[in-house]
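Researcher: Going back to the complex we discussed earlier. I've cleaned up the inputs and rechecked each line, so this should be the final set. Can you rerun the prediction on the complete assembly and write out the structure?
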Amino acid sequence: MSTGQSVKLADIYKFLAQAIRYPEADWFNDEFLAVYHTLLEGLEWPEGAQVPTKVDEQSLEDVQVEYTRLFINAVPHVVAPPYGSVFIDGSLNGVTADQTRKYYREHGFDITSNEFPDHIVTELDFVALLEEGEEGSSEEFLAQLFRPWFDQFRAKVLEESQDAYISTTIKLIDFFTREEEEGD
Amino acid sequence: MALNLTRRKFLQTASLAAASVPLAKVVTAEAAVGKSPFTAPGSFADTKTKVGGICEMCFWRCQLVGKVRDNKLMKLEGNPKSIDNGSAICARGNAGVQLLYDKDRLKYPMKNVGKRGAPKWKKISWQEALDECGKKLSATVKKHTSKAIAMFPHGASAKYPMHYFEHVVGTPNVSEASFFQCRGVRDYAWLSTIGTGPGEHVDMANAKVIFGLGCHFGENVHVSHAKRYLKGLENGAKLVIVDPRFSASAAKADIWVQIKPGTDTAFMLGMMNYLVQNNKYNADFVENHGVGFDEFKDAIKGWSLEKASKECDVPVAQMKEVADLLAANAPNVSIHPGRFSSWYGNDFQRGRALGCMAGLLGAFGVPGGFVKGKGPGGFGKVKWGHGHEQHEALHREAEIHHQSPAGTPTDLIRDCAINSKPYPIKSCVVWGQNPMQTIPNQQKTIKMLKQMDFVMCVDVMPTDITMYADILLPESSYLERFDYIKKGTQWDFQDKQQQYVSARMPMVKADFERKDQVYICNELAKRMGHEEAIPVHTIEEMVNKQLEPAGLSIDKLVAEDGIHLQPGKDPYGVDEDFEVQFYNEELADDQGYHGAPTYVPVPQPPKGFMRLLMGRSPLHSFNRTQNNIWLHNAMPENPVWVNDKTAKRLGLKDGDKISMTNSEGVKSGTTSHVKVTPGIRKDCVFMAHGYGTKNAAMTTAKDAGIDDQKMITILAVDPETGCHGVRNNFVKLVKA
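Model: Rerun complete. Updated structure for the full complex:
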C-alpha cells in the first residue's frame, strides 16, 4: 500500500457505515477514533480539532444521547430519522424503500439485517459492495436513490447536531458520496 | 478542508494510503446488505394473503387478512370468511398499515437521562433496559411492599403483564381506562340488575324499536355492531335517540329527544313510572323474572312525566310518545346499554335504569331485545400462579365503591400516591395506556408521576405519557404479534346459527427491536425473582395453550384461512331463573346505595360557561390513532359544536378558530375551529375526544385540535363504582 491509488472507496464506505451506526462501547473506542482522525488528517479537514480522540463512559453516553435525539426519538421531536422514505415519502418503509430494495436485488444483493433497505447504514454498506464488485461503480445508485434524500437529511443534521463527531461523520459521508463534475 | 480536494484526488493521495488497513480493521459490524441470487422485481403476482389478522385500531377487533409483499404489509382487508365483520373494515382498520410504518413509532428501548416530562432519550439494549426495570421495581417492593407499584394497562397486550403484577407481584393498584374512564360503570350497573355485564348485546337487526341514550352509532363505528344497527333500520325499526346533540344517529332517528345533559336518569324514571302507572309494562315478564318490583314502583312513583319533563327540558308529549312507542313494540325493543358510560358521576344509576326499562318491556331473550349470542366454549386459560404477597384494594379497605370494576378506582391510586396515605406508591408501570389523555385532571397525574421513584412505559407510539417514563420499551403492534383469541357468533341472530374462533397472528415480523408482551413480562419476572411462576415461554405457546382444549391450534386456524367455523346454538330465550333486580336489596341494605334506580342531579354550568361534552369520532380511537397520517388527514382537528344562537351572541362564525378556558381558569393551549349548528343545545358544546397531543415526538398529532382531557379538571366520581364522570366541566370559547 505504498502507491497513491490504493485507498479503496469500498473500505471508506464500510468505514462510514460503521461510523454512523449507533455508538456502542465495543467499537466506538480510542482505536476507532484514532483511525477516524487519520482520515480527517488525510483530508486536511480542520474539523478534526473538534472531534475527541479519546472516549470514556460519559462521552460515550453524550454521543449516544445525541445520536438518539437526532436519529431515533426525542423531545420536542426526532431531528432526522435516517431513512430515505421518511424524506421522500413521509413515512417509514415507503415506496422509496421498495425501490431501494429492488435496486439491491437487481444487482444481486439483498438485506441481511433487521433494518429497512433505505436506512443510511444499509445504503452505505450496499455502495461498499458495489465498489467491491466487478462493475465497480456506485454512482448510479448514489445519484438515483441516495443523494435525493441524503441532501435533505444532511442539512437537517448539520443544522441541529450538537456533536462534532456526528456532524463531521455526516460531512464525510457527504464528501464521499457527492457527485463529482468532470474536471473536479 | 483542503481546497480543491475531491474524492477522486483524495483516493489517489499517497498520504492516506496507509490508512486503508486501519479503516478496515475498525469496521466490526456485519454488513446490512449481502449477496443474494437475483430475483425478479416485485409485482402484484408475488403478493401473499396473510390470514389471522385481528384488528386493534379499536377494541371491537375485526378479523383481517393482510396483503403482504416482501414482508411488507401493503393493504388490510376484512377476512372474507368472517361471519362477524365479514370483508368490511372501517377507516381506522384500513389505516393500520400507517400505524405499522409510522416514522414516529418507538423502535428501540430507551432510557431517559433527562427529567420526567422533559425527557432526554438514550437508546439502550434490552438487557440494560430490563435489568434497570427489574432492579427498580424490586427495590420498590423491598422498601414499601408490592402495593407500592401502580399499573395502568390497556389493550390486549397488557393483559398478560397485568395479571403478573396483580397476582404474582401482588399489587391491587391496577387501573384500566377501559373500565374506570369508559364502560366499567355500565358493566357493573347491569351486573347488579340482570346478573351479567351487558356488552352491546342487543339484537338491533331484528328490533322493532332501537332506543339509544347518548349512543352515537356512526360516530362510534364497530363494524358488526353497525351492521346490526343498519340492518334493523333497513328492516323498518323505529329509532329513538336521546342526545343533547344532533348526532349521526339522531340524524337517522324517528324521534330525537334533545335532552338536557346530565338528566338522563330522570328521563328514564319519568317514562318507567308512566309505563307502570298506566299498566303499559310487560306484567307477565315482571311477574316471572322481576325482583323487588313493588319497592321499585314505590321508589319511582314521584316521577310524573311533568316532573321529568321539567328536569330534562323535554316536552311531556315527546316523553309520552317515546314511552308509548316502546310499550307498543315490546318486547322486541333494543334498549341499548351504551358503551362509553363515564359521563356525570351519577352513571351507575342510569345504567340500572336502562336495565330496568328493558325489564319492564320484557325485552330479554326475544328477537330485537337483549340477547347474548351463544359463542364457542372450552378454551384454556393461561394463568400466572398467585404470589405470596396479596393486599386488599384501597376501596375495599375504605369500604367504598362496592360496585367497583376489577382493579382499583383510579383516583384512589392517584391520591394515595400523591399523599403517601394510607401508604406510599413509588413505582409506576404503564402498559399501552396513555393516562395523560384517559384520566381527568392532568396536573394531578403529573404530580403522581413526579413523586415516583421509577416509571416505565411500554407502548407502540411516543404518546404523552411516555414523556414521563424513565425507561421506555417498544412493543410490537397488533399486526406483528400473536395474542388475542376472538370468538363469537354470526352477527345476525336470524341467520344460520354459527360460531367462530380466530386468533391474532402477525401479518409481518416486528421491525427494529420491538418485542411482544410475553417476552417483556417474562424477562421482568425473571429479574424480580418470579421465574418459577412464568406460565408460558413464548406468545405462540400462550395462544396454543388457550386453543388446545377446544381442539384447535395456530396451525389449524391457518389451515382454515384464519377462522374456524362450527355449528352454533339458538341464542333466544331466557333461563327460568333469570332475574331483573328492579330493586336490589344488596345495594340498599348492605352497601348503602339506592336500591331502585335514582336520579342524582349534576352541577350546572356557571354563568357564561357551557358544559363540555366529548365523544367519539369514526376516524379515531381516542388518542391512540392521532398520529396516523391517513386518519389525521381525514380529520385533522376536532371541531367544537356550538349552538348557532350562542355563536351569534359570541360573535363566532362557522369555521372560526377558537381556544377554550374552563371554569377553573385552565386554558386549552391549542386551538380548533367551531362548527356552528342548531343541532346542539345552548348549554353545552361538543367535540371528539383524544386530540391535542403534547408530545412533539408525535409529529403529526402534536397540537392538532384541543385536548378535552386537559379541560377536565373538576373531578366527578361515581359513588357506587369509583369510575370517573368526565362531563361535569364547563368551558367558554375564546376566538383565537
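Model: Worth noting: The first strand of chain B starts at residue 33 and ends at 35.
Researcher: Good, that matches what I expected from the previous run.
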